[in-house]
UniProtKB/TrEMBL annotation:
Family: Belongs to the short-chain dehydrogenases/reductases (SDR) family.
InterPro entries: NAD(P)-bd_dom_sf, SDR_fam
Keywords: Oxidoreductase
Name of the protein this chain belongs to: NAD(P)-binding Rossmann-fold superfamily protein
UniProt GO MF annotations: oxidoreductase activity
Amino acid sequence: MCEPRLEGKVALITGAASGIGESTARLFTKHGAKVVIADIQDDLGKKVCKELGQSSASFVQCDVTKESDIETAVNTVVAKYGKLDIMHNNAGIGGIANPNILENEKSEFENIISVNLLGPFLGAKHAVRIMIPNRGGTIITTASTCSTIGSVASHAYTSSKHGCWD
């Protein structure tokens, strides 16, 4: 068993019903954190919470492109645990990697930008609303090396993930 490095910490993780977010939720709970999984995939999110145990994880339905959903997710965490220590903006979508920009649709580009770039902005905005008065907290945003390598992913994905680099 590992040393519980996150004992007593509370984390909100977007996009944690699968993939990197799910792995993060599992790792955080293994290290003693309480996690709230915020995702649009209700069934998968609830399944992960059940596997992690009700004492360690809970689920809130959240579309990261909707500010009211992010605000509700943060408020849910604070109502349940009294604080928010870690905000992990992880939700993301890739889109279709079409190298010919003339064949890309504006609506798909806007959707990917909304999830991958606006989502983390809204997550950070509402997390700091809690973290600043409490004088502490950590915000993590998942980026991608695709943002530095052209033609590996869709134009929208590459642009959105480049916007997440700090």
